[in-house]
Amino acid sequence: TAGDVYVDNFPNMWCTYCGTSIAQAETGYLEKKGFMNWVKFPIIGEKDQFIEIATSRPELIPACQAILIHPKDNRYKKFHGKKALIPLLEKEIPIIIDKDVDMEFGTGAVMNCTFGDEQDIKWQQRHSLPISSIVSPDGFIQNTGLRYDGMLIKDAQREISIDLNKEGFMAKQERIKHRVLCHTERGDCETPMEFLTTKQYMIKIKDYAPDLIKAAKKMKWYPKFFLRRATDWIGALEWDWIISRQRLFGTPIPFWSCSDCNEVIAPLEDSEFPIDTSITPPPVKKCPKCGSSNLKGTQDICDVWVDSSLTALIITKWYEDPEFAKKWITKNSPAILRLQGHDIIRTWYTYTTFRTLKLTDGLFPYGNVLINGHVLGPDSTKMSKSKDNYVDPRDGIEKYGADSIRQTILGKKVGSDFPFQWDKAQHGKSFLQKLWSISRYLSIFIEDIPVTKPKYSPIDIWILSELENARKEITRTMDIYEFHSSLKVIHEFTWSKLCDNYLESVKPIIRSDDLARSSTVKQILKDTLWSVLRLLAPFCPHVSEAIYLNMFKDEIGKISIHATEWPAKDKKKYDPEEIKLGALLIEIIALGRQHKANMRIALNEPIKLAKITIPKEYLSQIKEHQELIKLPLHISELKLTSGEELAIMLVKE
């Protein structure tokens, strides 16, 4: 609302590279190299007495307004109420006490400069200190009356350090790595922030922080820990939202302001937007607050988040069709999901939530928030052309395929940053090659399967049970957006259980003369492959679609696999003992295949005798189903004995 917008000359964050004011949400701390300088400030009236100040920004010394010490710091108690001399300037400044001074940091005494950081602003206002603006909007030193005027900040920092040392004011200097507040929203900038006093348009957001935190806690967050990041950030807001930007292109600020009292004047409700107030006269001739006729528009444009924070309302047609929108935008909006990166929780998430709550009288823009991480370079750092560590997915599509690259990305935990590595794409490609091979193999057998009464073996019961377990777990993890877990289950079931175990165990049955058994196995393989394709389709849409079109479209009738139903729950109730027996049979067959490989015997080469030791409680059941072992392993005779551990010995001749 218009009452939430105001104009202020308050010190604000400024990017000297971009040449514009910056909102707090667009900043972050980066580790940078620098110097810590211990500078001596002479005490007026005290011979050879100094207070040392540790500072990483000596170029701001000409803007120093006071030295602050903690009231309980006995080291400086004798200096309370005295004055110090600013090195190189011969200017006197007061020594004052303040409980916010950290006695453990640096020397325990600090200088207040206008302005080095947010704390400087607080101290300046608390103690009504003067303001010296020595940094220009484009990053040059000014108004010092010294030789540093006209120098870039970094050059002035170097030169003033040299002069301090030359004049005997530098006690010592050390190289350091420290966290610096920078313009982090733009990866091509990352310039350290300055605090300049300029006239800016603001929106009151700080006072609404409790409402924003309350709303965040009512939403469902995926992963959950990002809720803490959001509430911590909102709870730490110290400034209102600066919405004006000093740039050439963007949405114009649609307000005028009074030059005498800073009252904001809004356009009429029936105005056509956008409005360029720098060339459009205000809707009133005099300020409604002070009566001044000195009303001016602005050439400033809106912060980009002013526009993008309306996305939830625009997408749901809030202003075009309110009745339709209210089906979606509700008190908890459970059907709407916000998908975004963790780096813009402070901006897009916070501002969208704030403006929607304000403009709809407390309705939510979304009820669910899914936060994704960043894909890093192979060296685990942020991709950058200057580092030559960026990855172009197009480089690998021809070699690995798009679905392999999708698996590489979706196989990582949602919300986490991770380095992109092509060997992971190779793993995804190998899986798809396996799926393609089994599909081609089965395509020979699963057309026109004779209709017979099903004749299940324990192995069949086992794979059907495993399929239902996989479907259930994949559905559960997909519902909570744990895609990496879903993909892992698909891989394990398809590659290990279906291809390497079940299919290898029933291949002889597929071609057998037992029509009931053969038809049963073929139908199980067909149904299982059809389920796997639908479970895999969200991750690998291209390969699953190709197999569907070649093998299932004529029967299913849908234009695309992505138009078909998600696999339904298997309502059959399988005997747990049958499942255990099937699992044991699969384990025996797998062990036999492993022994054949170790003995360098081809899998289809006949074996005269196999001696198998199995747990006593399964001995009779295994004897009953020994053909399930003999057929895939090509064993002529099977001798079974009981024992504590499963073991197998093969006799070739």
Write the layout of secondary structure elements.
Blueprint lengths: L4 E4 L2 E5 L4 E2 L5 E16 L7 E6 L8 E6 L13 E4 L4 E7 L11 E5 L4 H9 L26 H14 L3 E14 L10 E4 L2 E4 L5 H10 L1 E3 L3 H10 L5 E2 L1 E2 L10 E3 L5 E2 L29 E2 L4 E2 L1 H5 L2 H5 L6 H4 L11 E5 L3 H15 L8 E5 L2 E2 L17 H7 L1 H9 L7 E2 L2 H22 L14 H22 L3 H28 L4 H22 L4 H11 L1 H4 L19 H23 L8 E8 L4 H6 L2 H7 L1 E8 L4 E5 L2
Parallel strand pairs: 6-8, 13-21, 20-21, 22-23, 24-25
Antiparallel strand pairs: 1-12, 2-3, 2-11, 4-5, 4-10, 6-9, 7-8, 12-14, 15-19, 16-17, 16-18, 24-26
Helix pairs in contact: 3-4, 9-10, 10-11, 11-13, 12-13, 12-14, 12-17, 13-14, 13-17, 13-19, 14-15, 17-19
Can you give a write-up of this model?
- It is built from 19 helices and 26 strands.
- Helices cover 36% and strands 20% of the residues.
- The chain folds into four domains: 14-185, Valyl/Leucyl/Isoleucyl-tRNA synthetase, editing domain (Isoleucyl-tRNA Synthetase, domain 2); 199-253 and 300-360, no CATH class; 396-563, Orthogonal Bundle (Isoleucyl-tRNA Synthetase, Domain 1); 576-651, hypothetical protein PF0899 fold, CATH 3.30.2320.
- With 653 residues, the protein is of the alpha+beta class.
- The chain is elongated, with a radius of gyration of 36 Å.
- The longest helix is centred in the C-terminal third of the chain and has 28 residues, at 483-510.
- It has a four-stranded mixed β-sheet, with helices on one face. A three-stranded antiparallel β-sheet has the order 1-12-14, with no helix packed on it.
- Helix 12 (458-479) runs parallel beside helix 14, helix 13 packs across helix 19 and helix 14 (515-536) packs antiparallel against helix 15.
